[in-house]
TrEMBL record:
Species assigned in the record: Pseudoscardovia radai
InterPro entries noted in UniProt: ACOT8-like_C, Acyl-CoA_hotdog, Acyl_CoA_thio, HotDog_dom_sf, TesB_ACOT8-like_N
Alphabetical list of SUPFAM superfamilies matching this protein: Thioesterase/thiol ester dehydrase-isomerase (SSF54637)
Pfam families: 4HBT_3 (PF13622), 4HBT_3C (PF20789)
Protein's recorded name: Acyl-CoA thioesterase II
Keywords from the named record: Hydrolase
Molecular-function annotations in GO: fatty acyl-CoA hydrolase activity
Length: 334
């Protein structure tokens, strides 16, 4: 948190694409993909005015040429964390995506101090660019060392170890020269992602659609070493989960990410942390989807460490639209 000498009378504006510093941060020579992400999440120096703290951030390169949703959720967590006592860590975040962000503009995080209680601190983060708001977030931080009720669903039994499974990087490698998304997973993704069973990245899962189940299991860890405070590890988990949160909806619908004419976007995202995170270790995502209607689908996930501890949970609603002819064709084929 900045002191009074760093305060400003009004909010700074995001810089234009002609800013002296790079608006899009790429991967420098010798850096791992996760090093680039950590650099983006560190953000600029906070400027404080009354109950608001303003922090500027930059974006990572992404195939859509739009600001990646997981990035600004994670950056919002990091921005809010700069305004709370160090002994308070993020316990939940709830965000609404308002519109797609422009990767060629800086991102401004306006952190409002809502309340500092004995156990919890609440912050609102409004994320804007020159063209207006792109995300609004409420984040909660809890003082560490508190006691109370404690229980958890068990981790699924007999899950194949991640080192026995193909990585998304390996699966996408044959397509890296012709697909920007495949190239991203091969060269830029900060996470090693390994699906238990088939992945809807490339083909539809007809069995899942037939069984009316979008359930899937996915292992994930950072693709490079992260030595950083716990808040960074929690923010990285928020960023990583967004790469796969929509998949159960796609799976249960009998679609894939290469279904012709399909459009999709995250609408909102909620996440809860229950234990410390080590993003260097494998985590198992147990995902499902209970409902989809009117072009919207709800996905949920429970996240386990390798010792079986349930460390986090999350939910996301996404817009998924497919041309009527494609849906009718897929339904008839099942």
């Amino acid at each position: 948190m900045t002191d009074a000498s760093a305060s400003a009378s009004s909010a700074p504006e995001p810089t234009s694409p002609t800013s002296a510093s790079p608006v899009v941060l790429g991967q420098a020579e010798g850096e791992s993909p996760v090093d680039s992400i950590v650099k983006v999440l560190r953000l600029d120096t906070p400027v404080t005015s009354r109950d608001h703290t303003y922090i500027t951030g930059r974006s990572i390169s992404f195939p859509t040429k739009r600001v990646y949703g997981g990035q600004i959720i994670a950056q919002s967590v990091m921005a809010a964390s700069k305004t709370v006592d160090p002994d308070r860590l993020p316990n939940s975040v709830h965000g609404y995506f308002i519109t797609a962000g422009d990767i060629n503009q800086d991102v401004l995080f306006d952190v409002e101090n809502l309340r500092d209680g004995r156990s919890f601190s609440s912050r609102r983060v409004n994320v804007t660019q020159r063209d207006g708001a792109i995300l609004t977030v409420i984040a909660s931080f809890q003082k560490q060392g508190q006691t109370g009720v404690s229980f958890a669903d068990p981790m699924p039994a007999d899950v194949p170890a991640p080192d026995t499974l193909a990585s998304a990087r390996d699966l996408m490698a044959p397509y890296a020269d012709t697909s920007s998304f495949a190239d991203y997973y091969v060269h830029q993704s900060p996470f090693d992602i390994r699906h238990v069973g088939g992945t809807v990245m490339l083909t539809a899962d007809a069995a899942s659609a037939h069984e009316d189940s979008g359930r899937q299991l996915v292992w994930m860890r950072a693709s490079g070493r992260v030595d950083a405070p716990q808040v960074m590890h929690r923010a990285l988990l928020a960023l990583g989960c967004d790469q796969i949160m929509m998949e159960p909806v796609i799976r249960r619908a009998g679609l894939s990410f290469i279904t012709p004419g399909m459009s999709y976007a995250s609408i909102d995202h909620s996440m809860w942390w229950y234990e410390d995170i080590d993003i260097n270790d494998w985590h198992l995502y147990v995902q499902d989807t209970p409902v989809a209607a009117h072009g919207r689908g709800l996905a949920t996930a429970k996240v386990y460490s390798t010792d079986g501890t349930l460390v986090a949970a999350m939910a996301q609603e996404a817009m998924v639209r497919v041309p009527a002819g494609v849906l009718e064709k897929d339904t008839a084929a099942q």
